[in-house]
Amino acid sequence: MAHPLTPRPDRKRPGLKSAGSPATSAADGGDDGQTRAGGLEKKAMLGPKVRRLRRDHQLTQSQMAEQLGISPSYLNLIERNQRPVTVPLLLKLAQTFGVDLQSFAEDDESRLFASLREVFADPLFDGADLKGQDFRELAANAPALGHAVVQLYKAYRDRCDDIQLLAEKVADGDKLQLIQNPTFPIDEVREMFHEHANHFPELEDHAEALWTDVGLERGELFRGLSQYLERAFSVRVRLMPVEVMGQSERRFDRHSRRILLSEMLPLPGRIFQLAHQIALMTLRDTLDRIADRSALTSDQARRLARIGLANYFAGAVMMPYGSFLEATLSVRYDIEILAQRFQISFEQACHRLTTLQRPGAKGIPFFMIRIDKAGNVSKRFSGSGFNFARFGGACPRWNVHDAFRTPGLVHTQLAQMPDGTAYFSIARTVTKAGAGYHIPPQQFAVGLGCEIGHAPQIVYADGLDLTHTESATPIGINCRLCPRLDCGQRAFPPLNHRLIVDETVRGKSPYLFAPVADDG
Fold first, then answer.
1. Which tens digit of pLDDT belongs to each residue from 74-98?
2. Spans of all domains in the chain
3. Could you read off the pLDDT of 96-139 as tens digits, one per residue?
4. What CATH number is given for 26-106 in this structure?
5. Taking the model in full, what pTM does it have?
6. Measuring CA to CA, how many Å separate 340 from each of 174, 272, 316, 349, 411?
7. How far apart, in whole angstroms, are the C-alpha atoms of residue 452 and residue 421?
8. CB-hemisphere CA count at 13 Å for 242?
9. Does domain 181-318 have CATH number 1.10.10.2910?
């Protein structure tokens, strides 16, 4: 008998819409075709991707051109980025070679370009005559080399931290010990999720199989998962007093075959922890296989990846892909309604929205960030082209920081990056359960956003003039990388400008900078 969590090859995955459905891809003529077409038009110079696709299939230019119905000379111009890839040709590529249109046309080059700019903004490269066009050409023509440069810089930064730590230990007279790991495990795991665009089809399949094979029902998930654990694994679920659990939310006692949950956990948290434990008990090989594809460098990173992937599975169980996507479209991404309908928290709904990237049934490509009151970033996910800083915090002008002023209320914002890309975002505080008077609840702010072209589909944008981007709040990636020299909220000078110290002048910002040539 097949394990109840083994996906069936012939299972029709929920959420796949027929032509004309709002969730259907632009290639199928769905309602979001205008938005998607706009994205494809903006990203039509895809020569390096076409060349890599051809080489992956071990084809000559003549052979690929024949399959696409174009001339070899035209394909040669496309591969050299001297001709754009038209929408009909994209459709032909998808049909002939089985590529996913959205991922193929995705602007991953812009993310790599942003990372390269961040790397070369370091004072280490002050003497190098590097322009923005240099980074663009590297990202477009040699992306593997570009990613290697970013990885090398990360290793360099970590070694600098090692040296600083060593210096502090010497100063304190402590025992000398260098950190062996080339990167922090949490950063490796975040990069793994980023590489997968925060979408894992295998885990989606397993979550759907659990619903079907176990017979789960919405509104009865806690009872259904508890009964499944006891029936299939002889594991009982018990709610325990806070004085027993302390700061622990979940504890699996293998000897007594019990899952102990803290009484302080709200219902969404209890359901989440049961689904998480099911993933650890039944999907270990799948979790390890996904993690192994990212070549994580330490056992700690692999353990963190396994936990993160089990969390993903838990979210997919609580919010099954097809029904959750259908609900988001019907209520126009009203998160409060989704939270009530699926017995989930505001944060769980936001996180799930970033994962709706199934080919043929995609939601809006959202990005999400979670910060604490000190501005520390504890979560960041992106299903869009939004570039988070890899080596610093978030822009203080972003409304996610303002959410702490009015806890529980949703803030909206139109924001514009220095490159002119406009975004619509919402932000709200969320509270994590505490453990009594001496361990109070934790408060975070969650930000969720997307490119402004998707905003009309979102209920929170109703009544806003989305065409008047001149009123958008100017933001940047972070202070070190932002080129806006007139920002009065700047905490640090930008890395790519020479600082001028003049005690006779005070501007809007405490820093003065020498002008630099256009970086292209």
1. 998 888 878 888 888 888 888 888 8
2. 26-106, 110-180, 181-318, 483-520
3. 888 776 666 655 666 777 778 778 777 677 667 777 777 777 77
4. 1.10.260.40
5. 0.66
6. 53, 15, 16, 10, 20
7. 8
8. 12
9. yes
